[in-house]
Amino acid sequence: MFDVAVIGAGVVGASIARELSKYNLNTIVLEKGVEVCQATTKANSAIIHGGYDAVDGTLKAKLNVKGNEMYEDLCKELDVHFKRIGSLVIAFSEEEMETVKYLYKRGIENKVKGLEILNKDQVKQVEPNINDEVIGALRCKSAGIVCPFNLTVALMENAIMNGVKLNTESEVTNITKDEYFNIETKKGNIQAKYIINAAGLYADKINNMIGGEEYYIISRKGEYKVLDKSEGNLVNHVLFQCPTKKGKGVLVTPTVHGNVLLGPTAEEVENPEDVSITKDGLSFLTKNAKKSIPNIDFSKTITSFSGVRATPNTKDFMIFASNKARGFINVGGIESPGLSAAPAIAEYVINILKEEGLTLEIKQDFNPYRKKDKPFSHMTHEERKEAIEKDIRHSKIICRCETTTEAEIIDAIHRPAGARTVDGVKRRVRPGMGRCQGGFCGPRVVEILARELDLDMEDVLKDYENSKMILGKVKESRGEKIEI
Fold first, then answer.
1. Cα dihedral sign for 454, 457, 462, 465?
2. Catalytic residues
3. What is the mean pLDDT of residues 182-203?
4. Which of 24, 100, 219, 462 satisfies CB 3.0 to 4.6 Å to 361 for a cystine?
5. d(CA 63, CA 78)
């Protein structure tokens, strides 16, 4: 019997799990994927928004601003890279400047910190590569960037360190309630006194299992391009185009790892698993990103990807206790700025649980810190020598693009909530994130995963269930198996 079952291990579910780990509770997280961070969280803009965009009075506005303020301390505790680089909403006409002024006013109402309106000269001073047609911008100094993969993994690691149980490959298939909730999963059944529904794109379906209040999720796909690190100095801020009735346009932003990210598109799709890349989508990104930065060198594109976000029909976060099944808490429709709001959402959910009758006793030995070794790629020559002396496996560079060592990959596999797939390793310690996109290091990562997890190489997955990297053997030579 669990006190609380959290359904979903994206950044919101992981944030809630970590918050629950501060209390003397028996908590479990149920994730349908092979790993944490396999859906919306792994494919977004990685931006910590200031909070001026959300309509005042909404949960989005309230939790975005509060979550933003929490990020610095949270990332220090979890040893996650966070940079408060600021953002610009850029205007190319007087009409768009009126929108900029409106967003400034809304931001003030939402109590956003660090807002100011810049004229053309001021914009050009802080962003030399911006389109000369710019006439002004809204600057938000409190906006930032983070790695959503590492953040989610860190949150879950810390939760597990503090007693939370994680069950992956545990898709919830049915929920009933007698005295307690009976949760049927593909890995067996469990009981829980309370349920937190943080199932992302499937939150409405989980809600329907208990006959909950009606709301539904619209699956909205966004495509992105990633530029090589050689283009990392192209922009200094997160650059947003001025929103119109047709949407927010295409953003251009640095990443915490030194790349440049362009996107997203916005297309409603029927299938929440549709993460396809389209010619039209990439053409749209190319055309519209140039509106902000005309001299973007698209020949330096190293990869493209897409993610599907959970847009609620209500246009606001759906965070509330069900009146159909006491103890069932919905945390649905967490689209942008969900990443920004995640730590504040977790605190908000704790307060709902208190109102629902859950007794919360603070854990005296809660450890808020999660530490990991400095990346080998960031070490000085002396630090690398010392690291190799401690663990000779640091002398084997598996990914030359990102300077990732064998020791780092092995550590990523064996940590709490450790990597179980090639992409899981990639998201944690970056082999395959560079120019060759795993063309050289991919086979070695497969070998290491097979060895460390005691698997046949044919059973190593790229990312999702059934996404095998090796399809089978083509022949045997001198008694040795040759894999494809």
1. negative
2. 49
3. 97
4. 24
5. 20
